[in-house]
Design brief:
Structural class of chain B: mainly alpha
Largest sheet of chain A: 7 strands, mixed
Strand order of the largest sheet of chain A: 14-27-26-25-15-23-24
Number of strands of chain B: 0
Number of helices of chain B: 2
Strand content of chain B: under 5%
Number of helices of chain A: 25
Oligomer: heterodimer
Shape of chain A: elongated
Chain lengths: 716, 58
């Protein structure tokens, strides 16, 4: 705002206008992965505000996104402006992103705030009682505590009660059953004591239990939703625009603008945006996303094509039959989300622990009650002890230990440029002993130093057309160095993963790809038109920055790096010699890569796959853990567990170290929690656990676990 | 002990004010971009300041 205001009222008017503008949902949201500091915010917002038609632009640095208000601004013009400012931006599909803020997280935060408020107040009254208040004063304090804590417990405990009830209804026990029981019994028991003028009330325990457990629940929710929104963001990145055929020309339109009956072109390696039928004579499509079949299927004209399939062959044409919410993909999306949640074996570990833990706790409390009734004959005293046992054994640390470590680790990794897509990724990553790298686009950045000038216009046109039809990093690198000529008209364009591209030019076969596949006398990339000799296209491989550091770090950790490349012998050997990897394989096809990886894993190795291309997709999905660079093909990015957002590989060893530390810290936290129980439970069983001891034992164990989890931030 | 009858409500109301304040910050979206808000502090061209070189009466 450059408006100069001398009086407050003048400053308020434009402010109100801005608030009103921002109240509407943004017209465009773009992801800008390279945002990282205040200067970036200023640069991006200034650049966009200067763009005609933009009302306002607001950067969210935590999400690395910018929201733009302005009805008539196209994504392309925004991307161009940002490119000019030095940032790569990717439009996000607004319908795929959650429009509003996440209501569950907000609900948990509100409950957390209320529980914290009530806990502090009640704790103050408890301190007064513990330090010697008696008779009428004590009863007054207890009464006020009851008035504060009963509504607070009933409101704030709802997430636990709801979970416990849904488990009990189907006759199962989960972690929330002992939690709910402890909270409710402690509150109910205390109310009974207060009404009868008793000396002990556990209101503070009931509230602090709720408070600490809500922290765990909130952290858990945050790390899950950040993983989910990362996946969602990738999904939103993938199918954003489609190529619609209008009057013979393919135009780029937003997927949300597609209607039933539209004709579309699907380029190689791209996901189909909507359900439809095939118009081209044949197509090769990967349905593994929908059916689990790993091999690509050959389709013929008229066959149904479903949203989410990946085009593995030549670009094909289709007619849309179902769009938006009606697509099969969208209906399956919920199932996938459920499957992803259940894949989180860490939580399963906590749940498995709870399955043993919950019945044990209930039996212990019941036993304490029965034995004390038998010894003393005083039901009220026995009930007091049973409640104390339940409060102390409440799986507070269990509910806090795992989410706290995972949240801290994922947040730290995001700051380092690693987007962790799957909850179990870190645990699996901690176990790997072999790291397999793809070469092109992974260990190297494929970009040439100089322009290619040796080609005739026809040759350059053919090469340009072929490169445009592929998403392979080599094709993209080639596009940057080819002379800017008109692309030639080719038919039957077909990508053969691992080899190259082939097509027909006025009846002549044209091929672009590896020298050996073209039958040429050289190894590198070449172009062959008809029966003419193949022409080499000099494209040099530049190692990705930080490769040396990454490999050295991996070796120090006892992990053997290997190269598994679809490229030919010479470039692979050149690179291997340059970066010092001995274990190399070349001329490996997509299926061979997959077979090699599966074989290694069957032999007992845990393999980390790092790759980016169409030929790595199957391996990325099959490996024990997988990483894909942000520049990877969208199919590979969605198959990988972790996406590397930065260009450098230098932080790679730290990623592994943090993954290992995460597993270790979670185990430590379990041990700490068990240790506290081992000390406090006998005290409670013997009847020495006053509300004071219960409150201290619980708070201290929770805080220790939290503090231990934060150690993940200082791992080097 | 009559002072308690004043002090207790006062302390609870003060705490309640703090709670209301927090809920307000939450609802107005102040936790949506914690990292960005921290960085925005360093932007110097964000707010318009009164122009001191001009006479306010003119």
């Amino acid at each position: 705002m450059t408006h100069v205001a001398a009086c407050p009222a003048c400053a308020v008017a434009p402010l109100a206008q801005e608030t009103a503008r921002n109240a509407r949902p943004p017209d465009a949201v773009l992801s800008i992965p390279s945002l990282h500091c205040a200067a970036c915010i200023g640069k991006v917002e200034r650049a966009l505000s200067a763009l005609p038609g933009v009302d306002s632009a607001r950067v969210n640095l935590s999400l690395k996104r910018v929201s733009v208000h302005g009805a008539d601004v196209s994504d392309d013009s925004i991307i161009k402006v940002l490119k000019g400012a030095g940032y790569d931006a990717y439009p996000l599909d607004l319908t795929l992103l959650e429009a509003g803020q996440d209501p569950v997280g907000r609900g948990l935060l509100i409950r957390l705030a209320i529980a914290g408020f009530a806990m502090m107040n009640v704790m103050l009254f408890s301190v007064a009682v513990w330090s010697g208040a008696s008779d009428a004063t004590r009863d007054l304090f207890h009464l006020i505590s009851a008035l504060i804590s009963l509504p607070a417990v009933l409101f704030c405990g709802q997430p636990f009660f709801a979970n416990a009830w849904s488990a009990l209804r189907v006759g199962a026990l989960n972690m929330d059953v002992p939690i709910s029981l402890a909270i409710l019994l402690a509150a109910g028991m205390s109310l009974f004591e207060v009404l009868n003028g008793g000396a002990h009330a556990y209101f503070d325990a009931a509230l602090s239990l709720t408070f600490f457990l809500l922290i765990g629940r909130y952290l858990d929710h945050r790390s899950r939703s950040s993983a989910r929104s990362a996946a969602k963001e990738l999904a939103a990145l993938e199918v954003q625009t489609a190529q619609r055929i209008d009057a013979g020309h393919a135009t780029k339109v937003a997927v949300s603008a597609l209607r039933v009956g539209d004709r579309l072109v699907i380029p190689t390696g791209v996901r189909v945006p909507v359900d439809g039928t095939l118009n081209s004579p044949s197509a090769l499509s990967d349905r593994s996303f929908l059916t689990g079949e790993s091999s690509a299927q050959t389709l013929t004209k008229g066959d149904p094509v479903q949203a989410g399939e990946i085009n593995q062959g030549a670009p094909f044409e289709m007619t849309a039959t179902a769009v938006g919410e009606d697509t099969t993909l969208r209906r399956v999306a919920n199932l996938v989300e459920m499957a992803e949640n259940s894949r989180n074996s860490y939580t399963n570990l906590a749940d498995r622990a709870a399955r043993i833990y919950a019945p044990a706790v209930h039996l212990l409390a019941l036993l304490a009650f029965v034995v004390w009734v038998w010894i003393s004959g005083d039901i009220r005293f026995a009930l007091n002890i049973a409640v104390a046992v339940l409060i102390i054994t409440c799986p507070c640390a269990l509910g806090l230990a795992v989410p706290a470590v995972a949240t801290a680790a994922i947040a730290r990794l995001y700051g380092m440029g690693f987007l962790v897509k799957s909850g179990t990724a870190l645990e699996r990553l901690a176990e790997i002993d072999v790291a397999v790298f793809d070469k092109t686009g992974t260990l190297t950045l494929s970009s040439s130093t100089g322009k290619i000038t040796s080609l005739s216009d026809q040759q350059a046109g053919v090469a340009r057309r072929l490169a445009q039809s592929s998403d392979h990093p080599v094709s993209r690198g080639l596009l940057a160095v080819l002379p800017p000529v008109q692309p030639a008209a080719l038919t039957e364009i077909n990508e053969i993963p691992g080899f190259g591209m082939e097509a027909r030019l006025k009846g002549q076969a044209v091929r672009m790809g590896r020298g050996s596949w073209l039958g040429a006398g050289f190894d590198g990339l070449g172009l062959k038109i008809g029966d003419d000799p193949a022409i080499p296209l000099p494209l040099t491989d530049i190692p990705r920055p930080g490769v040396q550091t990454a490999l050295e770090g991996l070796r120090n950790m006892g992990i053997a790096p290997q190269i598994l490349s679809g490229d030919s012998e010479k470039p692979v050997q050149d690179l291997a010699a340059q970066i010092g990897i001995k274990d190399i394989q070349f001329n490996v096809s997509a299926t061979q890569k997959h077979a090699y990886l599966t074989g290694m894993q069957q032999a007992g190795h845990r393999v980390l796959m790092v790759g980016d291309g169409l030929n790595d997709t199957a391996s990325l999905a099959a490996a024990h853990a997988s990483v894909a660079p942000a520049s990877a093909l969208d199919a590979s990015r969605s198959a990988a567990d972790i996406v590397l957002l930065r260009e450098t590989l230098a932080e790679f060893p730290l990623l592994l170290k943090i993954a290992r530390a995460t597993t270790q810290l979670s185990r430590q936290n379990f041990a700490i929690a068990a240790g506290y129980n081992a000390i406090a439970v006998p005290v409670a069983l013997l009847g020495y656990a006053s509300p004071l001891i219960a409150a201290i034992a619980m708070s201290v164990s929770s805080l220790t676990v939290l503090a231990n989890a934060m150690r993940i931030r200082i791992i080097r | 002990m009559n002072v308690l009858l004043i002090l207790i409500p006062v302390s609870i109301i003060l705490g309640g004010l703090g709670l209301c304040g927090f809920l307000w910050t939450l609802r107005s979206g102040q936790y949506d971009d914690a990292e960005g808000s921290a960085a925005r502090l360093l932007l110097d061209d964000d707010d318009a300041l009164p122009d001191l070189t001009q006479d306010p009466k003119s």
